[in-house]
Amino acid sequence: MAGPRLSPNWPAQAEARLREGLAAMQMTLSEVTITALMQYLAALVKWNQAFNLTAIRDPLQMVDKHLLDSLSLLPELGQGSVLDVGTGAGLPGFIIALVHPELAVSLLDSNGKKTRFLKQVAAELKVTNVTVITGRCEEQQGSHAQIVSRAFASLADMVAGTEHLLAPDGRWLAMKGHVPDDEIAALPAHVALEKTPALRVPFAADARHLVVLRPAH
User: Where residue 148 sits, what CATH number does that domain have?
Assistant: First the structure.
């Protein structure tokens, strides 16, 4: 199913929107990184018309709800390898990889058309710090310093499905709307809540928070 007809000028409008958002977030990115983010967005818009990778069709809304939302996580990101579980179209993991080429980022999703998109765009953009994995988190092996998710599952389900993949001193970073007090209360005793900072997402009407968890030693 084809999406709505796009304005021929949408790339320039989307880049202006991205730059406006970055300024509002007081975030400085290199021109090389901004170009890469726009190339990713162009690929997402193109593939989405055929493969329905995201329900959002408007490129400007994609800037707000995908690019800027993913970028809002960066101030809370630490050092060490990143696993993005339920990455979908690469959000936030592919965005993290573009901004932080020094980090090894693994993108995990069980949806084959979404991981095919990620492999293709990683090849086109020559992104060498990304590993794309098709499958379920319960089936994976490895050790990651940071496990991130965006609209993936409840906190308890995220922990249960991925704790075998978290390094001993690692952290979970779950992007949420409002602080999910009920989900936090349902966490097992061996998981500690570190903090729940508000995320700064320009143009977003809804609240956004990050829930940072770690193993309780």
Answer: 3.40.50.150
Alpha helix positions (H), 104-174? 112-124, 155-162
H-helix or E-strand spanning residue 160: helix 155-162
Has residue 78 been placed in a domain? Answer: yes
Tokens of 208: 């956004």
Classify each residue of 156-191 as buried b or exposed e, where b means 16 or more C-beta atoms within 10 Å of its C-beta.
eebbebbbebbeeebbbbbbbeeebeebbeebeeeb
Q: Is there a domain that residue 3 lies in?
A: no
- Tokens read off for 20: 């406006």
Residue from 206, 143, 211, 124 nearest 175 by CA: 211
Q: Residue 41 belongs to what H/E stretch?
A: helix 31-51
pLDDT, tens digit, 9 for 90 and up, residues 44-72? 999 998 888 999 999 999 999 999 999 99
Number of domains in the chain: 1
Residue 4 lies in a domain: no
Residue 24 lies in a domain: yes
- Decide: pTM greater than 0.90: yes
Peptide bond into 92 cis (omega under 30): yes
Do the Cβ atoms of 100 and 125 come closer than 8 Å? no
pLDDT mean over 166-172? 97
Task: Tell me which residue range forms the domain holding 127.
Answer: 10-215
Give tens-digit pLDDT for 2-42. 455 778 899 999 999 999 999 999 999 999 999 999 999 99
